[in-house]
């Protein structure tokens, strides 16, 4: 199943065949499901009792990146693994003869990479009846090794901006008659890099995309686009950083007379630790992997839209399991690989954590 999903990757909001595949697998398990007319993604519901409702979430989209010289959809963040683990968690519980003491709601969420997939599910009311929510993410070798697992991942807040610059064309021999947007790009880049950051709280802001000019090198360009990636370990630090960034970009970009437009594309909140959920998952990790297999939650600048669920639904209790896989060279690397045996660890831990949640929260 993992190899099939890996070889048939689809980018955010285009996970049409992936949704169909999951639908077929849920039908094999006799789990009712809900599809959507306006977007990809699928939600299965197993069980008839109202309380508690345990949510299990897996993301399903791939990245668009260059792999060995070819631009393609590529699962370099492990979402194919997450989907596989959730489907086999359900199959595992079914084959063990488990009957949910409450309901299990499995959310196969699209578009995590855009930061908008979780919000789409929230806006559809799919989390309104959920009491507890479990997620899982494969972790790089720099954080934990194969055979290790953490009961949470402390992701930082992340945001991305798209900017546009408008200047004035002129002949390159008479630059004083134009407004060169490349000068604006340079000034913006330097301004971003000069924002003072609190050394106590990890944070960063950097330009990650820039495009200006055309095919003729003797014209002062009048239009440019740029992208900015922003990270901070806490939501409070992110709010301060974004406020400074927006003012700095405008001041620097317009210093030469150009006009700046800046649009917030995505904004993912930082993780909110939930000790009671972590304790339940920690018990499952120790039963599956032993005492040495349980490690502390990693603190990472990576963003994850899973944390929208807890931010918007304040009563919802959540945690995201960190699965050690010996993943190399790193997440989002086009040639990322990991030990596939770790899929079984993820299935066992997710299944046992679900059972424990149902029993302890009944």
Automatic annotation (TrEMBL):
Question: Any idea where the Peptidase M20 dimerisation domain is?
Answer: 158-250
What Gene Ontology molecular function terms does this protein carry?
Answer: hydrolase activity; metal ion binding
Report the co-factor binding details.
The Mn(2+) ion enhances activity.
Q: Which cofactor does it need?
A: Mn(2+)
Classification via SUPFAM superfamilies: Bacterial exopeptidase dimerisation domain, Zn-dependent exopeptidases
Highest taxon of source:
Bacteria
> Where, in this chain's numbering, is Mn(2+) bound?
77, 79, 113, 137, 332
Q: Mind listing the UniProt keywords for this protein, alphabetically? A: Hydrolase, Manganese, Metal-binding
PANTHER family with a match to the protein in the record: AMIDOHYDROLASE AMHX, PEPTIDASE M20 FAMILY MEMBER
Q: What is this protein called?
A: Amidohydrolase
Taxonomic source organism: Niallia circulans (Bacillus circulans)
Supply the source organism's classification. Bacteria, Bacillati, Bacillota, Bacilli, Bacillales
């Amino acid at each position: 199943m993992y190899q099939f999903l890996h070889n048939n990757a689809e980018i955010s909001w285009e996970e049409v065949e992936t949704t169909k595949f999951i639908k077929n697998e849920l039908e094999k398990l006799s789990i009712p499901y809900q599809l959507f007319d306006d977007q990809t993604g699928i939600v299965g519901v197993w069980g008839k009792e109202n309380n508690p409702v345990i949510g299990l979430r897996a993301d399903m989209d791939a990245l668009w990146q260059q792999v060995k010289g070819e631009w393609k959809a590529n699962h370099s963040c492990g979402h194919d693994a997450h989907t596989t683990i959730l489907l086999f968690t359900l199959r595992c519980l079914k084959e063990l003869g488990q009957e949910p003491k409450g309901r299990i709601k499995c959310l196969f969420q699209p578009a995590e990479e855009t930061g908008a997939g979780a919000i789409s599910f929230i806006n559809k009311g799919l989390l309104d009846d959920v009491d507890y929510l479990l997620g899982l993410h494969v972790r790089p070798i720099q954080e934990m090794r194969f055979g290790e697992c953490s009961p949470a991942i402390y992701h930082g807040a992340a945001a991305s901006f798209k900017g546009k610059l408008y200047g004035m064309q002129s002949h390159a021999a008479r630059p004083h008659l134009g407004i060169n947007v490349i000068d604006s790009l340079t000034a913006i880049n330097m301004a971003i890099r000069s924002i003072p950051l609190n050394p106590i709280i990890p944070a960063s802001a950097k330009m990650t995309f820039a495009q200006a000019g055309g095919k003729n090198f003797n014209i002062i360009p009048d239009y440019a686009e740029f992208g900015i990636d922003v990270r901070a370990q806490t939501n409070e630090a992110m709010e301060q950083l974004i406020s400074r960034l927006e003012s700095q970009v405008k001041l620097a970009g317009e210093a030469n007379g150009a006009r700046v437009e800046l649009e917030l594309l995505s904004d993912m909140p930082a993780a909110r630790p939930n000790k009671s959920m972590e304790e339940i998952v920690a018990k499952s990790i120790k039963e599956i992997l032993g005492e040495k297999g349980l490690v502390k939650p990693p603190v990472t600048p990576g963003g994850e839209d899973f944390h929208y669920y807890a931010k918007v639904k304040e009563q919802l209790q959540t945690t995201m399991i960190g699965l050690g896989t010996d993943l190399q060279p790193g997440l989002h690397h086009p040639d990322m690989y990991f030990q596939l045996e770790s899929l079984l660890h993820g299935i066992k831990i997710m299944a046992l954590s679900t059972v424990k949640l149902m029993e302890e929260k009944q």
